[in-house]
Amino acid sequence: MSTFTSIPDAQAATCTEALPADSRPADGRPADGRPADGRPLYRQLADQYRRAIDNGVLRPGDRMPSMRAFMQRHGVSLATATESYRTLERAALIDARPRAGYFVRARQAAALPAATEPDLAVVPGAAQFVGIHSAISAIVSKFQRYPDALNLGGATASPDLYPTDALQKAALRALRRRPTLLTAAGPDQGDPELRAIIARRALDAGIQIGMDDVIMTHGGIEAVNLALRAVTQPGDTVAVESPCFFGLLQVLESLGLRALEIPASPTTGIAIEALAFALQTHPDVKAVVVVPNLQNPLGSVMPDTHKAQLVELCARAGIPLIEDDPYRELSDAAQSPRSLKAWDTDGTVIHCTSFNKTLAPGMRVGWINGGRWHPRIGMLKFAQSRHNEQLSQVVLAEFLETNAYERHLRRLRDRLRIQRERMAAAIAASFPEGTRFTPPGGGMFFWIELPRDVSSAAFFDAALDEGIRLMPGTVFSNAGRFDHFIRLSCPSTDLDQADDAVRRLGRLAAQRLAHARTP
């Protein structure tokens, strides 16, 4: 690594020349403003340096231009230069060194092998009445005995990664404008302004709906609950991914439904061939539930071809396809992945999502489009919980109507990517031989395959004694699978603390592996 190498003029020129001509004044330097494509100039400049780093023009250890040199080279203000460097820093591409300046960061690739792909030759087992609730209750009870444990088992980001101040100010403005928000009953389907905004934003996911096609819910879990109640009866069978989010297994249990587990890939999601075979051999399947984008716990994103095949398969079989899609906007992809609903032509897909993961876990604001079951879902919503609390909806509508949400999402994705990269490097360096995992392309989860001799249930208990929370793989299946898997999340913004916790978990896994293999 060339620790104190400055960027040669030729390399800097490469970065500058890559800028579009319409962002430079007559002397060849970029104008300090907003380029014609609508993006702020600081992002345009950051992207040029990002490409230079990706292409090897700028190498690990190269010194970036000083702020003064950057301003002179590109003809920009201090604010633009500072924000350009902050963008690169949030993306873990450069580091600031005290009294030395900014340097291109060495990228650390995870050295562990990818997670094992499911064996598609294994025939899905018999559908089972779900009995996972007692296992979840036991874990929650243990969590409560360790209130100060570092939480690497959660499913939301750290509170300081969400726009707390902006949401508080929006709430105060909303109450001043509409003082009866807390005392007047709201519309049954939800706030009309918010539903109209959601319908417009749904176009980004490939979904074409109107505001009357949106029903607000208490988070995404109520949306899934309503969808299942609309299309099943107690005793019915529902096909789910395996591994599967344990919250869904709890919902199935509460509704008296059977779970038929279909293997899912850590890279492409639910196995379409296995599902097709299961639908032939289990004619009593009444619904399919999937998380197509950044699946929990795998972190997989279904390719578009798989999404189209899945929708076609369910439509041909006449089976409702329930899409739980709360993580889509946390993808690192240049263009967010599309939802399954984008391929729906006859109302087969029931789309469920929320803002719990992306914006405000405390608000519990979700929504559902019920496809051809939409009217029935509306009546079930009224019977189950009536209208949603309206203040959160009005606040959310104001936030979504501006560019504030997009700016927040960019910051959140950048920060989560830095946290994942740090955690992936720590896992690769600390966990014992035989550990496997596939780093996801967004979100906050790692699905880690431990050596087979390490029990995740025992590992969970030992980690709690170390003051660390995680989720054992046993709760992600009702069929006794995944005993040597764990789910880690990266919600902590204290990266050094998280690194230390991962190193301790790695040592703990090595100890338990050695103990298990001792005669």
Question: Which properties best describe this structure?
Answer:
519 residues; alpha/beta; Arc Repressor Mutant, subunit A; nine-stranded mixed beta sheet; four-stranded antiparallel beta sheet; 41% helix; globular; disordered N terminus; transcription; aminotransferase; PyrdxlP-dep_Trfase_small; pyridoxal phosphate
Describe this structure as you would to a colleague.
InterPro entries: Aminotransferase_I/II_large, HTH_trans_reg/aminotransferase, PyrdxlP-dep_Trfase, PyrdxlP-dep_Trfase_major, PyrdxlP-dep_Trfase_small, Tscrpt_reg_HTH_GntR, WH-like_DNA-bd_sf, WH_DNA-bd_sf. Keywords: Aminotransferase, Coiled coil, DNA-binding, Pyridoxal phosphate, Transcription, Transcription regulation, Transferase. Residues 24-37 have a biased composition (Basic and acidic residues). It holds the Pfam family GntR. This is Histidinol-phosphate aminotransferase. With 519 residues, the protein is an alpha/beta fold. It has a domain at 5-104: Winged helix-like DNA-binding domain superfamily/Winged helix DNA-binding domain (Arc Repressor Mutant, subunit A, Orthogonal Bundle), CATH 1.10.10.10. The chain is built from 16 helices and 19 strands. The protein has helices at residues 9-17, 41-54, 67-74, 78-90, 133-145, 164-177, 192-201, 219-231, 246-254, 272-281, 304-317, 374-385, 390-401, 404-430, 456-465, 495-517, and strands at residues 5-6, 62-63, 94-97, 101-104, 128-129, 150-151, 215-218, 237-242, 258-265, 269-270, 285-290, 321-324, 349-354, 365-369, 436-437, 445-449, 468-469, 471-472, 485-489. Strands 5, 7, 8, 9, 10, 11, 12, 13 and 14 form a 9-stranded mixed beta sheet that branches. A 4-stranded antiparallel beta sheet has the order 15-16-19-18. Strands 1-2 form a two-stranded parallel ribbon. Strand 8 (237-242), helix 9 (246-254) and strand 9 form a beta-alpha-beta unit. The longest helix is centred in the C-terminal third of the chain and has 27 residues, at 404-430. The chain is globular. The chain starts with a strand and ends with a helix. Residues 1-6 and 8-36 have low confidence and may be disordered.
